[in-house]
Amino acid sequence: MVTSNFEYFAPTSVDEATSLLSKYRGEAKVLAGGHSLIPMMKLRLAEPGILVDIGQIEGLSYVREEEDGVAIGSMTTYREMATSSVIQSNYPLLADASARVADLQVRNRGTIGGSLAHSDPAGDIPAVVLAIGGSVVARTRRSTREINIDRFQVDLLTTALRDNEIITEIKLPRLASGTGTAYTKFHQPASHYAITGVAAVITTSGRTCTDARIAVTGAGDKATRARRTERILKGKEITPAVIRRAASRAAAEIGDALNEDIHASAEYRDHLTQVYAGYAIEQAVAAAG
Ligand SMILES: Cc1cc2nc3c(=O)[nH]c(=O)nc-3n(C[C@H](O)[C@H](O)[C@H](O)COP(=O)(O)OP(=O)(O)OC[C@H]3O[C@@H](n4cnc5c(N)ncnc54)[C@H](O)[C@@H]3O)c2cc1C
User: CA torsion sign, 271 to 277 to 283 to 285?
Assistant: First the structure.
C-alpha cells in the first residue's frame, strides 16, 4: 500500500497548473481531493511521475448564481454542495446526492471536479450532472473549452478530458418552472458507492410530462442516460402504469454491459435499476407538483 515515487507540485494559479500539465504531458496527474487518486496510487493502479496539486489555487471553490443557471467551481466539495442554499433550492437532487456520498471525511475533501474527471462507474455526481444537463469547463495553458455533459463520460474511468486539461468549472442550466428532481440509490453499506443510483429531472404541465432527463449510475461502465425511459415519459399523462413501463426500460441502454461483481449480479442490478428508477420518477413528479 505504498505509492511509487512521484514529484509533487503545488501551483497557486490555474496558469501555473496548466503549464505544468503541458510540460509533463502524459506523466502528470491533477490531484484534487485525493479520495480516488491516492487509493489508486497506493494500489499501484495509477503511477503518475508528477502530481499537480490544485488545492492551493484560490478561486476554484464557489457556487455562483448566474443569469441562466449556476456555476460551480471544480474544487467545491461534496459538503459545500450539500449545505449550499443555492444548490438546495435550484438542484435539490445535487444537494441530496452530495450529502449521501461516503462519509463526512470523504465529503469534506472530495470535489465535484474530481468526481467528474474520475468517472467512477459507481459515482453519484456524474449521473446527477448528466440528468441536470449542462457542461464542464476545461482549460489548458492556451485555451478554454466547454464540454457538453452528454459527451463528457466516455467509458469506464474515461472522459473526454485531455491530459493537459484542468476542469475549472461546472455550468448547470436553470431548470424550467414545473420541474421536479430526485436522486435515489441503493448503496454499498460500507463505502456508500451506488450499486445502482438513478437521477431524475422531470418537467410537468398539469399531469403531463413535457420533458425528462433520467441518468443511471452503478449499473454499467459509466453514468448513462436512460433515453428509452425518457421517451416513454415525454408527452404522456403520468399514471402509475406509465411510471412502471418507463422504469422497466431504465437499464435498457446498458444492455449486456450490466456490471456484475461481489456486491450484485447483473440480473439483480437490472432489477434494482428498474425499482430505483420507479422511485426516482415518482419522487421527481411529486416534487414537480
Ligand atoms: C471510502 C470512500 C468512499 C467513497 N464513497 C463514494 C460514494 O459513495 N459515492 C461517490 O460518488 N464517490 C465515493 N468515493 C469517491 C470520492 O467521491 C472521490 O472523492 C471522488 O471520486 C474524486 O474526487 P477527488 O476530488 O477526491 O479527486 P482525486 O482523487 O484528487 O482525483 C480523481 C481523478 O480526477 C482527476 N482530477 C481531479 N480533479 C480534477 C480537475 N479539476 N481537472 C482535471 N482532472 C481532475 C485526477 O487527476 C484523478 O485522475 C469514495 C471514496 C472513498 C475513499
Answer: negative
Domains and CATH numbers, the chain: 7-52 (3.30.43.10), 63-173 (3.30.465.10), 179-288 (3.30.390.50)
Distance, CA of 53 to chain centre: 21
Residues 6 or more apart whose Cβ sits within 8 Å of residue 203: 175, 176, 178, 179, 180, 209, 210, 211, 212, 288
* pLDDT tier for residue 167 given thresholds of 50, 70 and 90: very high
Confidence of residue 1 (pLDDT cuts 50, 70, 90): confident
Does the Cβ of 117 fall within 6 Å of ligand 1?
yes
Going by DSSP bridges, is the β-strand pair 50-53/28-31 parallel, antiparallel, or unpaired?
parallel
The whole-model pTM stands at 0.97
Return d(Cα 184, Cα 200) in angstroms, integer.
9
Residue 193 in contact with ligand 1 by CB distance below 6 A:
yes
> Distance (Å, rounded) from C-alpha 46 to C-alpha 59?
28
* 264 phi, psi to nearest 5 deg: -165, 145
Q: Which of 1, 9, 56, 101 to mutate to test the pocket of ligand 1 (most atoms within 8 A of CB)?
A: 101
Determine the pLDDT at residue 199: 98
Gap between the Cα atoms of 224 and 217, Å rounded: 7
32 lines ligand 1 (CB under 6 A): yes
Q: Atom 11, ligand 1: which residue's CA is nearest?
A: 123
Query: What pLDDT sits at residue 289?
Result: 85
